[in-house]
């Protein structure tokens, strides 16, 4: 760096407010692009410098932050991590680490601990932090992590944000207040308080079947007032709602990400402008969800449609045939992982139903070569192998019978 550049750097530092003090602990606010000088920041906005041949480029802090976030915005398939249990009902760390490697090797774009699929409400705060620590350590920066940070109140949620920021997660996901149904004004105030005080980027989590809904005006207002709020995960499955959010937010925040949490609508959501999804099915068949994402973005829509139809069949079986998320846990077990018994007690009838569900899931997975068929075999697939002559013969017999009865 030339002497003139160093002088200008020093002059710029002197022009900063008194409370803008360089901190050796905070270098993450540097430009993060080759050729850009990494500046240090401690709770203030400093000018960012770029030195290229004969050019000194100054960026306003707000412009720089949005550029950086646009380049790093959340995209792709983030897997909501299921958690294996050991024989004592505690987190099975070894199996969880093996599961993380398996997911990454099969192409997921990111990991999402402490989500609904990960049963975050059934763990203590200490366990939730430990789960994220294990996943972050095992991922070793290979994929970004979106950590669920929802706690019972703002203070505890911000404490969780501080902890996860220290682990180097890309962002946290925070569900709207649950148990108490709140008004849109209260939901806005809740997230605004978090957005103004969090040390890490925040993804809003809209899941209206379990928590206070986050409406479009609230998302728009928060996106405009809180730079740290960078995305929303929407699990309503409503395509018009997603379109309205994108229309309201994207013109002013092109760096803002939209993720769908409803597997059955992944392809259409991507087509209307979503950046990706946090899809429970990706924890069972990561190869399929990644393939669906890639085909859709490549415009190979006929192929993508076929994959989406297959995914819906599997998703519906897992989510509707057992208490959530037991169907997903059973399916992951069929892929070779020791998931252990869940923490939600089950009745004898539910256990019997779950065993039946395992056979059904094994048949569905075996159709795609992910498992062998169960010992008793599988029923013939409803798709394919249709004899057109046989169908025609049956139709003629039905018509003849209707004529005989005078109904035609």
Attribute tags:
single chain; 408 residues; TIM Barrel; 8-stranded parallel sheet; two-stranded antiparallel sheet; disordered N terminus
Set down the secondary structure blueprint:
Layout lengths: L2 H12 L33 E5 L2 E5 L1 H11 L4 E5 L12 H13 L4 E3 L12 H15 L6 E3 L5 H14 L3 E5 L8 H12 L6 E5 L9 H10 L3 E6 L4 H11 L7 E4 L5 H6 L4 E2 L8 H12 L3 H20 L5 H9 L13 H19 L21 H17 L4
Parallel strand pairs: 3-4, 3-10, 5-6, 6-7, 7-8, 8-9, 9-10
Antiparallel strand pairs: 1-2
Helix pairs in contact: 3-4, 4-5, 6-7, 7-8, 10-11, 11-12, 11-13, 12-13
By DSSP (H or I, 4+ residues per run), the number of helices equals 14
Low-confidence stretches: 1-59, 382-386
Which word captures the global form? globular
Sheet-strand content, in percent, reads 5-15%
- Taking Cα atoms only, what radius of gyration do you get, to the nearest Å? 25 Å
Q: What is the CATH topology of one domain? A: TIM Barrel
CATH superfamily of one domain: Aldolase class I
Written description of the protein model:
- It is built from 14 helices and ten strands.
- The chain is α/β, with parallel strands linked by helices and 408 residues long.
- Among the domains are: 3-69, no CATH class; 73-283, TIM Barrel (Alpha-Beta Barrel).
- The strands form two sheets. The protein has an eight-stranded parallel β-sheet with strand order 4-3-10-9-8-7-6-5. Strands 1-2 form a two-stranded antiparallel sheet.
- Strand 9 (257-260), helix 9 (266-271) and strand 10 (276-277) form a beta-alpha-beta unit.
